């Protein structure tokens, strides 16, 4: 079976701010944002596919359309392939605009869509508007199933080569997918390894706190603040959450903003001492909850509830430590 692989045509382009699935074209008849036919802008992107079998190599000079060539054998003599460029929209279902997912069926005029999409159209083709007799397109199924696509975040370090039909699913959970900065109004999207630089340049020092794993540190938090950003020594981003639970008190917990393969397990300890009698204290040990972004939701399984009478009405002092261990 032929084996295809996708790679972005422009290797020097800045990494995308969001998963590729969010840029799907719409069936409204308007030109796509990247279409430079009318405005003189750059031509639409193409992607490179590699197919087994071949000896010579040719490169296309345009970004639009497809590039076809023969790729020479690798060191083992078996890495043969044909390199070509193709508009990725051709591999998307014209009904749901998601990647074509076998089994694939076509009408008598050759219009192809996913089986699940055809079933919603009462046996009438959405393109030619005629009652259709559908036939399975096994040849196209084999092509779609053989295509391997590079992750949209390859420029940010992801080396995964995934099935094109599963590309969106992979990118939604990719470790290198950018996350939204939790500071209100910021709009920055980044990932582990760049948070420290972002906070040092774009935010005040009062907005975040650096810490070392396994070492306790003191946090003096305004009672009205919903969270404080904590940056680990490996640049993982944590939020110390503060939920005002009237009429009981403040609920404190810790979440880690990250996606993808979780190579580390995090735990935390929070201790609160009474302002009236420091010998009285409350403590919580729990596992850190993982989240892709901060949406105002608080963990419901583990949190430390500190009564109002236990702390000051304006500032709350906590002793916090975060532990890290390798995932098994």
From TrEMBL:
GO terms for molecular function: ubiquitin protein ligase activity; zinc ion binding. CDD domains: RING-HC_SIAHs. One of its GO terms (biological process) is protein ubiquitination. Residues 1-57 are annotated as: Disordered. Residues 146-204 form the SIAH-type domain. E3 ubiquitin-protein ligase that mediates ubiquitination and subsequent proteasomal degradation of target proteins. E3 ubiquitin ligases accept ubiquitin from an E2 ubiquitin-conjugating enzyme in the form of a thioester and then directly transfers the ubiquitin to targeted substrates. It probably triggers the ubiquitin-mediated degradation of different substrates. This is RING-type E3 ubiquitin transferase. The gene is LOC123093866.
């Amino acid at each position: 079976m032929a084996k295809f692989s996708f790679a972005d045509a422009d290797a020097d382009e800045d990494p995308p701010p969001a998963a590729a699935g969010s840029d799907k074209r719409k069936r409204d008849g308007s030109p796509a944002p990247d279409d430079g036919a009318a405005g003189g802008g750059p031509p639409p992107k193409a992607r490179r596919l590699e197919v087994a079998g071949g000896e010579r190599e040719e490169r296309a000079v345009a970004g639009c359309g497809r590039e076809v060539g023969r790729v020479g054998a690798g060191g083992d003599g078996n890495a043969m392939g044909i390199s070509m460029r193709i508009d990725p929209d051709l591999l998307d279902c014209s009904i749901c605009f998601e990647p074509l997912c076998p089994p694939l069926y076509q009408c008598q005029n050759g219009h192809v869509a996913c089986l699940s999409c055809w079933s919603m159209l009462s046996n009438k083709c959405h393109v030619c508007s005629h009652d259709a007799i559908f036939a399975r397109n096994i040849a196209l199924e084999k092509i779609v199933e053989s295509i391997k696509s590079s992750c949209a975040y390859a420029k940010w370090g992801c080396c995964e080569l995934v099935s094109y039909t599963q590309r969106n699913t992979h990118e939604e959970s990719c470790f290198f997918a950018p996350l939204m900065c939790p500071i209100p109004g910021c709009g920055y999207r980044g990932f582990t390894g760049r948070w420290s630089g972002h906070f040092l340049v774009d935010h005040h020092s009062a907005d975040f706190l650096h810490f070392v794993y396994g070492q306790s540190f003191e946090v003096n938090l305004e009672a009205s603040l919903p969270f404080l950003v904590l940056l680990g020594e490996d640049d993982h981003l944590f939020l110390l959450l503060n939920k005002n639970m009237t009429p009981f008190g403040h609920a404190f917990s810790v979440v880690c903003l990250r996606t993808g393969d979780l190579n580390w397990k995090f735990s935390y300890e929070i201790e609160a001492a009474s302002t009236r009698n420091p010998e009285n204290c409350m403590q919580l040990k729990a596992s850190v909850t993982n989240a892709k972004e901060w949406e105002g939701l608080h963990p419901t399984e583990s949190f430390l509830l500190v009564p109002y009478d236990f702390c000051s009405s304006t500032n709350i002092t906590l002793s916090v430590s975060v532990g890290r261990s390798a995932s098994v």
